[in-house]
């Protein structure tokens, strides 16, 4: 059964054929591993190792600092080489811990004994999740143990497991669901133990029938969970879109999913929660897809955190003969981040590496014309915004109209409007700018108010 | 490996549809109607098209060069403007008409307002109105093979029937782009390809039709409605002009409102005024409302709509009936009530009109058969009436029609005579309607006029006894006007009004003939 869809959305080319049937393999790096202290949302972690300390996989390198923060955990064995600033996916220099990898991958434990979690109290479950250093593996990287402790757990009605993978090129979650369905269901069971009134819903787009069948099999016979197959459409996996589809509620940007009784986590995160609570295994590696038309052997990989993107590309057989990629993306082409170099470390919330021979944005700049007022951008917006008018307001310098009359802050930067625009106008790009300007202005106003 | 990768903000992929693709698809969709136009109207139509398109493109090029702006002609929008303008001109216009029209459309209506995406009225329509005003007589004369004749719209306005099939195929006397079939093929293709917005098309056509049904005075008459939909540029307007991106609103509710405005204005001009090209004006007027619509019709994001906010507060989901907004319900009720009221007024006035007619008729029946107490329908008469059914009666009486025929009964229920109402369209000044009374022996008992609008002092004198009474008491096969031989059948003409007199004599003869036919053909 295919369920309802959210409103809006677009259909970019899926481009998943090259990697969708390639099973997950582990990609063990040879070079140094680099760990960011501040890859999650919240306060950066506080380092607990010194230069030249020997470390094992599973060992905590930096501890969560404050409530909204997460541990940074080593994913290989070796020695601490440096604590310094390194260039990251975003292009910025950030505080990192660099580990010289000895290539042996000795661990602090073997995590193969299954615990029964039914006897555990909520705090124990949360502390295991925190100890495993789990953060949201898809979106912004919100610390999971914080997300799992909303003010009123009784009010949560849906725990939504996001297996939609609507981003073009990416197929790693598809493979994860095909091969590790039972463990994902375990993870969901653990989560449901925290929310007595919630139903677990695994959402999968209908372009992944194998994954849906595997998940269906895994959830059958378990209480309070089901699989929901959704139509394939980009931005289906957005938090707002999923919540709208499952609960029927549209909620504004200043509300949290928990405020409307929902909780959304990526399949990878749910898998990690299951492993952490049942086996005590910390989050050492997560799944990623390496693909794109410039890659010789696209595939899906278990990638250790801190691995360099260049090592990851090597795992996929490197570039195609003579291929010169124009664009390399951490993630897919809709929401991924364009990187200037491959010499940056993988973060826990990266789900893919896409190398493309052509740069649509470059071409778009050449084809750009004035806005035709064709209105195509409006119905694609999953939030029901009016991108055409928002862009006009931004260009006219009228941020007040952008924010108050057109609700510009509701934009989730999904990119659908830019994708569809025949005049090739950089709408999402403008909105990102506008939102940043408005936020800065708000901060300045708040600071001024305090004086 | 080079490390100079392109940086950019997401998204990094784009849909294949570009401005150029859209514009050239529209041009392709106009191809069928263009080809049909040239095929039917001939070489001059082709020249009109050529001049119009070439001028449009050249004007845009010149403007861009003059203002040192990037040249935008390759986006195809100028070609569309030129094509649309030519397609809405008569095929016989002199070539300076498309030349001036196109220049005005591109230079004044489009470029001066900032070009593609910024002009506020449809350039092609602006060009058309410009030439309509500047060269009005040349532009609005429609000639085929050098003969001026009426367009289907003029014919309809004169109250005569038009052939919908001919309009559908574009074989009428109208603008170059008048083949409805070809317009529909192109328009529907654009709709299916999602190039034009179906909301606008539908709301134009639906509101136009509804207005005509309610105020057109013909109710739901498919022939009447189709004729209106197929004529006067409605299809071209709805599919190709109202949907112009730049001059229509961007939001969905805005578009529906805008479409309805065009439809209603267009139908209103059709019903209540006699300007030609009313539909063009209705689009242009609606264009002017677009900036206003875009300011005031701004839908809220989903999360801020009433229903969503109630759900956020944890209120239960409403059922279908509760979800229909109150204003919509109020509007629906108002529409229904006023619809009923209107149709009620219509039927009431209609029946009074008919009653009055009957009253007038019965007075004239009484006048010609004074012996009768009541008038009834008669089977023989009815049968023949339905056979001749309002067509011109016979071939010897000019343009005469038989309106009604009733049998007059006296107090005992015996036949006192037959009254037949006849109309001749050959009066000096329009129709003459009169009633002829015939007694059971076939003798004329008298005539009485129910409609006579002849010249006072001349034709009008037909209503004086000196003329009228000549018919009474005579039993003849046919009366003769100013007969040479002495006979009962002779009728002396009203002096100076032989046309009127002749029409009256013919009408009476037709009534006599009808009577004989009805009574079993006691013909000579
Ligand atoms: S980027 Fe923002 S405005 Fe554009 S479609 Fe997405 S949410 Fe809507
Ligand atoms: S899709 Fe692009 S051209 Fe069309 S209205 Fe939106 S911004 Fe303008």
Please explain how this structure is put together:
The complex is a heterodimer of chains A (451) and B (524). Chain A has 451 residues and is an alpha/beta fold. Helix content of chain A is 30%, strand content 19%. Chain A is built from 15 helices and 17 strands. In chain A, the strands form four sheets. Chain A has a six-stranded mixed β-sheet. In chain A, strands 2-8-7-4 form a four-stranded antiparallel β-sheet, with no helix packed on it. In chain A, strands 11-10-9-12 form a four-stranded parallel β-sheet, with helices on both faces. Chain A is globular and about 60 Å long. Chain B has 524 residues and is an alpha+beta fold. Chain B contains 20 helices and nine strands. Chain B has helices at residues 19-41, 43-66, 77-87, 96-110, 123-134, 136-139, 152-157, 164-169, 180-192, 198-215, 222-230, 234-241, 252-272, 278-296, 306-312, 320-323, 326-368, 379-388, 465-468, 498-518; strands spanning 143-144, 147-148, 374-376, 400-409, 415-427, 430-438, 444-452, 480-481, 490-491. In chain B, the strands form three sheets. Chain B has a five-stranded antiparallel β-sheet, with helices on both faces. In chain B, α3 runs parallel beside α5 (123-134) and α5 crosses α14 (278-296). The mean pLDDT of chain B is 83. At the A-B interface, β15, β16, α10, α14 and α15 of A face α1 and α15 of B. Bound molecules: iron/sulfur cluster (2 copies). One iron/sulfur cluster binds next to α14 and α15 of chain A.
List the helices and strands and how they pair.
The complex is a heterodimer of chains A (451) and B (524).
Chain A: H1 17-20, E1 24-27, E2 33-36, E3 46-47, E4 54-55, E5 60-63, E6 72-73, E7 78-87, E8 93-101, H2 122-131, H3 144-147, E9 158-163, H4 172-179, H5 181-194, E10 199-205, H6 209-219, E11 225-230, H7 239-247, E12 262-266, H8 267-279, E13 285-291, E14 299-304, H9 309-315, E15 327-330, E16 337-339, E17 352-356, H10 360-367, H11 377-380, H12 387-395, H13 399-405, H14 416-420, H15 427-450
Parallel strand pairs in A: 1-14, 9-10, 9-12, 10-11, 13-17
Antiparallel strand pairs in A: 2-8, 3-5, 4-7, 5-6, 7-8, 13-14, 15-16, 15-17
Chain B: H1 19-41, H2 43-66, H3 77-87, H4 96-110, H5 123-134, H6 136-139, E1 143-144, E2 147-148, H7 152-157, H8 164-169, H9 180-192, H10 198-215, H11 222-230, H12 234-241, H13 252-272, H14 278-296, H15 306-312, H16 320-323, H17 326-368, E3 374-376, H18 379-388, E4 400-409, E5 415-427, E6 430-438, E7 444-452, H19 465-468, E8 480-481, E9 490-491, H20 498-518
Parallel strand pairs in B: 8-9
Antiparallel strand pairs in B: 1-2, 3-4, 4-5, 5-6, 6-7
The structure holds iron/sulfur cluster (2 copies).
The site of one iron/sulfur cluster (SF4) has 16 residues of chain A, from α12.
